[in-house]
Amino acid sequence: MNNRNFLIINGPNLNRLGKREPGIYGAKTLDDLQNELEALSATLLMGVSFKQSNSEGEIIDLIHEADGQFQGIVLNAGAYTHYSYAIRDAIASVDVPVIEVHLSNVHAREEFRRESVIAPVTIGQISGFGFDSYTLALYAFNNHFKGDAI
Q1: Which domain, by its residues, includes 68?
Q2: Which of 20, 22, 42, 108 qualifies as a FRET site for 31, CA 20 to 30 Å off?
Q3: 134: annotated active-site residue
């Protein structure tokens, strides 16, 4: 395995995957997501660590702690995406690239979900592909560090 390690942070209510609005978010659980991404990361020769928190402050601490420890962060900030300037500032304060992900297509949903205050400080946003949003983020990081993209 190479020395590329990535932190995957899931924000509020993502611990409810499989139970919360399955028509929007699907029937798979957060454990299912972790298992799928661990399998993919092994094929991409990268390490992944997973964290989930419903607390804005804890997400900020995780971002801060990632600086110097991880080569990138895949972040689904959940509802914090739309209004947390504190998470936005945490991302801007670290020297770790962040890819914002969402399971649903936030741009096809309620008006308030269409605004991301964190997007301007990330290297990209992927939404609307369910678990594949995370998969695409790992591929994007893989290409980013090979110099093929981003």
Answers
A1: 5-146
A2: 108
A3: no
